[in-house]
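Example 3.2
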Amino acid sequence: MNTDELNALEATLAFFDTCDDVVTEFSSGHSSDESSHSVHNMSAETITDVAVGLLTNSSNPRGHVSAAAEEIVRVKAKLEVPGRNRSRDLQKLELLQLRVEAEALQQRVEELQFLNGDIENPLTALITDTSSWSQRSDEIRRGAWQGMAKRQKKLRKEAESENKQLRGLVESQLKTVKTLKRLFYKQGMAKINPGLSRGLNASIISDGPSQEYKVLEKLSRNLNDLFSDTDSVFESNGLRAISSPFLQVNKQPLSAANTRIDFLKCDVLPFEYRTVAKIFADKMASNFESEEDKHIPSNLKENVVARATTLELEQLKIQFRFTGYKYAEVKREVIVLSGQNKLLEAFGVAVDGIRYQEKSWCILSEMSPGVCLIQLCISVTLEAKPLVDGRRGFVNKLCELLAGFKQDMFDSVQQEVERDLLRAS
């Protein structure tokens, strides 16, 4: 074999060796890529152990060494075959041995450079990537905890709002229960003591037709003015802001002969306010009927409630002339009364010139569905002109009797209304 043929043979062997190196490096690189998918599932300790093992085994590259050793064995076996071209096999064997020695030297150089710190360990980058992934995982976990905390805060606020509403409902129910207890107590007391409360016994005396019916017509014309003054009156006496059971009597001397009495009351009934207002109006129209009512003009009785009555009480005898009307509004109904009355007897003695004017407002409104709020204001102005000085005590006593009489009258009517409502329910 001449020199040209040997050069061509060496070039051919070098080409095949280069292809083998590329295939081997691709195989090792592909296997390392596949193994990298499971690195993120390892802990830091596991990664460190793997790194140490790789560093320990890096001095023995089994991929290239095993392939070269097997090739050397095959070439040596070919040399023993008789009749072959031994020069080519010997040349290939020498090239393989040189390649193994070169790879060993290259591996040794890399180990020395790594120990001296001249090159970066590829496993360090792997550990760094794993640490950054762990940090991102911590951030995701922290964000999840923050979201759970915000949701918990929102749920807590909603629960507090619901608890507040429930507390309001419970308080409302307790008020209703107290009202029912008081109503049942009043019902029991009414059965024990039927009729008017506080031993008030009234007898109706007919006066017959008289000129005083003109007074009723005049009073009926003033009802609209009284109704228009409802809100201002309740605002001035402070009764508009009260929505719980309340009772108060105020007496105020206006002059030596005039005294003003204000009877203020609030109450709650567990019934629908329109039904309560209707029964109150019916009681106002039916109570204290007398023969003289028959002489009241029919056109007046069709428009308003008009009464002309004389009552004899235990210590008083009073001549009543009053008119009334029920006004219906949104969420409330208002009953107004206007009266011009005369005191005939006091403590068994006939008196003359003692009169009192009466203005009454009764608002029945809806406190809550099925619960009626009653707000009552009765304003009485007593005029006692013929009384001389030094008889102020007598006037005060009359004021006390009138205030007690008004309270007894309204309590009696309210008890009858409650009994009718209970029978109807």
